[in-house]
Amino acid sequence: MVHALGAGAQLVGRSHECDYPPGVGALPVVSRPALDLAGASPGEIDRAVSGRMEAGDSMYAIDEVLLRDLRPDVILTQNLCRVCAPSGNELSRAVREFEVRPQILFLTPANIAGIEDNVLATAAAIGRLAAGEALVEVTRERIARVRAAVAVARPRRVVFLEWTEPPFCGGHWVPEMVTLAGGHDPLGRPGEDSVRVSWDDVAAASPECVLVSPCGYRLPEATDLARSLPVITGARVVAVDANAYFARPGPRVAEGVELLGHLFHPDLVPWPHAHRPWSEIAQQAR
């Protein structure tokens, strides 16, 4: 978001998950996960995270010494999901003894309008409000073009999965993206948290397309997980780059809508980019 506002050079640190655009990898890392889940399966991750959440333990640790030494004027954090990234509570604790407290922006979008509000709030905090307004306008125009292109098309019946073991439906801004792109997800929860569903629920939804977009995963990992899904009769299974377009609310939401529009209605919504952030999965009976 900061880079999209033309202020990438002002960044002094990042979370352990921030990796776009690629140049941010050189920035100091001020957070780390409390659990080492490298190599764990989705089921193992779900059990470990659920246990920690039930115990009331934090999912992340903040390097308070490094954060103080970086002396940021503004800290961008989120207060939407304790699982996905360090939350507002963790940041508030980390800065409570700073001599000069930075401004903390708590980003908690539930839908696309909320993402736009976050862009504008961030732009105002870093002195780039005009750039923020221009970015929001461009984003709206791109989404509007997709919506107009699919307006006369029959909505594709889809199921969007934010996790696979157990399956979680799409929540917050994702069902809205699906609708704008000419789809309908009967399991989606617009503006609300994603929740566990069953494979029977997925089958009962009679999807034409199942989108596999596991939170925190890039395309290669999403593709591997999609190959392990149970057979969903009559459905096309497509893995997508969750981190780039769906799990992280930011300026690339417009490209995410364009991607869905192309997947649902390729004859109406072109994909002119050189990169291909999806993969078709051939289902095999197990």
How would you describe this structure to a colleague?
With 286 residues, this protein is of the alpha/beta class. The protein folds into two domains: 8-108, no CATH class; 153-281, Rossmann fold (3-Layer(aba) Sandwich), CATH 3.40.50.1980. 35% of the residues lie in helices and 16% in strands. It has ten helices and twelve strands. The protein has helices at residues 42-54, 64-70, 88-95, 112-125, 129-149, 174-180, 199-204, 219-226, 242-245, 253-264; strands spanning 31-33, 60-62, 74-78, 103-107, 156-164, 167-169, 171-172, 183-184, 189-190, 209-212, 236-240, 278-281. The strands form four sheets. Strands 5, 6, 8, 10, 11 and 12 form a six-stranded mixed sheet that branches. It has a two-stranded antiparallel ribbon with strand order 1-2. It has a two-stranded parallel sheet with strand order 3-4. Strand 3 (74-78), helix 3 and strand 4 (103-107) form a beta-alpha-beta unit. Helix 4 packs antiparallel against helix 5 and helix 5 (129-149) packs parallel to helix 10 (253-264). It is globular and about 60 Å long.
Topology diagram in text:
Layout: E1 31-33, H1 42-54, E2 60-62, H2 64-70, E3 74-78, H3 88-95, E4 103-107, H4 112-125, H5 129-149, E5 156-164, E6 167-169, E7 171-172, H6 174-180, E8 183-184, E9 189-190, H7 199-204, E10 209-212, H8 219-226, E11 236-240, H9 242-245, H10 253-264, E12 278-281
Parallel strand pairs: 3-4, 5-8, 5-10, 7-9, 10-11
Antiparallel strand pairs: 1-2, 5-6, 11-12
